[in-house]
Specification:
Chain lengths: 90, 416
């Protein structure tokens, strides 16, 4: 079973967490074109390798946090708070 | 070589020496009219229909691993056309009708078994939504009927329909023409038939980049076996669609997830229908070899690992045993996962991409085995003519900007 490091509770089993998808998606302004709006809603990088994503420790402390995780190996590369900008490398 | 009872006899008498390879394994040529990237069912079917329907025979299929080593050889082999919306019903029922004649056409036994597909209702809400579902199917001209609890109990004697069941069965519905087909045979049958029409099938050939012309159009690919030029290119790479799109410089509305399945040891016939329980997240059927083939829902985070989490496996086994308590005696033999290409409305994308001369077939997610004939037919059409096939018109990439989504999430659910 994959294990993830909650910044508050430490390393826990995957089944305690809920994945919220990719992080750092910026909502465009109200003047956005259909193309920009569609890209914001639906289009994703979906890399085979490092991905920055949001997770919630739903069956633990309930907190959200950011994770950089390799989608091929499932290795966790870094953990950082929700409001922080993405770390370099990925 | 045509397969027949006589060929089988000849093979037996010659001690197996009369059999020939089912397709050639040629070195790739320097150039083709059309290249297909991905040797799963959709890629192989596309190549076959390019040759058969459009006379385009200077075609190669490039596969990074082996034929059907992707989702086509990893799925739970369920075929059905019980979709909610008319656009999907037309596409998937066209596919099922092609399947019905395909063993004969390809001269390859696909072991299509239309044993019926039963969805179980575990709540009043399930009953209501299934009634609506059946009504939609009738409006789309597709066979479907509601089943009472008693009818289900008679069809599935090992299912726990008692009032004390953990998940009480209140009723359900059936698509009688639903069933299973042999997944490997679908890949191999299309490969053999395409090869016979002149298509080159090139395995162990990974596409690593695209060559571009003066107007940004694709003019070929770089691969692990050298550069290959082409007038047009079709992508049919399922879970790797985003990786290829990134190489060509655009993004897709796709996320790749692991979807897992497992089989038990083989036993005598005990389950005479495909059974889906959307409420509990389990579905199963018995293979002709006798194994119980059990499928799960997605591992709900992006993944390119073809294994799947233990947490999901545990959940689906628990649900299966709650439905069929006597299966607790069965041993699981194997578990695996595929790498599925999920889009927000659970409907496919078949048509042009932002890059000229580059076309795509993807987004089948957890349910594209049943759609292989239709996916191949419609990708071949747009590759040969430059125009979308009428069945594929609603399924364009453009819908994610116009907002015309075909939201089959309700109908597709976990019901692959
Ligand atoms: C566990 C599981 C159960 C499922 N159950 C069902 C079911 O019961 N019914 C149903 O209808 N559907 C089901 N599906 C979905 C179905 O399997 C897929 O939608 C379908 O097989 C997709 O076919 P494809 O040809 O598009 O993809 P694939 O068969 O995955 O083929 C894509 C190919 O592209 C190749 N490729 C990738 N990148 C490259 C590259 N760079 N260069 C060259 N080649 C490349 C891959 O190696 C692969 O062989 C299930 C899927 C899974 C994983
Ligand atoms: Zn926590």
């Amino acid at each position: 079973m994959m294990q993830l490091p909650c910044p508050w509770c430490g390393v826990r089993d995957e089944s305690e967490f809920v994945c919220g998808g990719a992080s750092h998606i910026v909502r465009p302004g109200l003047s956005a074109s259909d193309a920009e709006w569609g890209s914001y809603l639906f289009f994703r990088d979906n890399p085979k390798g490092p991905l920055r994503e949001r997770w919630r420790h739903a069956y633990g402390c309930g907190q959200w946090f950011n994770l950089m995780r390799d989608t091929l190996t499932h290795q966790v590369l870094s953990v950082y708070p929700m409001a922080e900008p993405p770390p370099a490398g990925g | 070589m045509r397969y027949s009872a006589l060929a089988l006899l000849r093979g037996a008498l010659s001690g197996g020496r009369s059999w020939q390879p089912a397709w050639r394994s040629p070195e790739p040529k320097a150039a083709y009219d059309v290249l297909i990237v991905g040797g799963g069912g959709h890629g192989l079917a596309s190549a076959y229909y390019l040759a058969r329907n459009h006379g385009v025979r200077n075609v190669a299929v490039l596969e990074r691993g082996w034929l059907g080593g992707g989702n086509t050889g990893r799925n739970t082999t369920i075929v059905r056309s019980n979709y909610l919306y008319p656009e999907s019903a037309r596409l998937y029922d066209f596919s099922l009708r092609l399947y019905e004649g395909l063993s004969r056409e390809l001269n390859f036994n696909l072991m299509l078994s239309q044993r019926g597909l039963i969805d179980l209702a575990h709540s009043r809400h399930d009953l209501d939504s299934m009634a609506r579902w059946v009504n939609s199917m009738h409006m789309n001209g597709i066979d479907a009927r509601l089943l009472s609890r008693e009818e289900i109990a008679a069809r599935l004697p090992l299912l726990d329909v008692s009032p004390e069941a953990r998940y009480p069965v209140l009723g359900g519905f059936e698509q009688p023409r639903g069933g299973t087909a042999r997944h490997d045979a679908v890949a191999w049958g299309y490969a053999r038939a395409a090869d016979a029409l002149g298509v080159d099938i090139v395995q162990n050939c990974e596409v690593t980049g695209f060559l571009r012309g003066g107007h940004g159009e694709v003019t070929g690919v770089t691969t692990s076996r050298g550069t290959i030029r082409a007038q047009r290119i079709g992508l049919a790479a399922a879970g790797h669609s985003s990786v290829l799109a990134a190489l060509a410089g655009f993004r897709l509305p796709v996320t790749s997830y692991a979807l897992q399945a497992m089989v038990s040891e083989p036993v005598k016939p005990a389950l005479d229908a495909v059974v889906l329980s959307p409420g509990t997240g389990a579905y199963l059927s018995q293979s002709d070899k006798g194994e119980m083939v059990i499928g799960a829902g997605l591992d709900l985070f992006a993944s390119y690992a073809q294994r799947g989490s233990f947490a999901v496996l545990q959940g689906v086994v628990a649900a299966t045993l709650a439905l069929f308590p006597s299966f607790s005696r069965l041993k699981l033999l194997r578990q695996w996962a595929g790498n599925v290409d999920v889009v927000h409305d659970s409907s496919p994308i078949i048509g042009p991409t932002p890059v000229p001369e580059l076309f795509i077939n993807c987004g089948w997610g957890t349910g594209g085995f049943k759609a292989i004939p239709a996916g191949g037919w419609t990708l071949a059409h747009v590759l040969a003519t430059g125009r979308s096939h009428p069945l594929a018109e609603p399924f364009q990439l453009e819908r994610f900007h116009s907002g015309r989504l075909i939201d089959e999430a309700a109908a597709a659910g976990i019901a692959h």
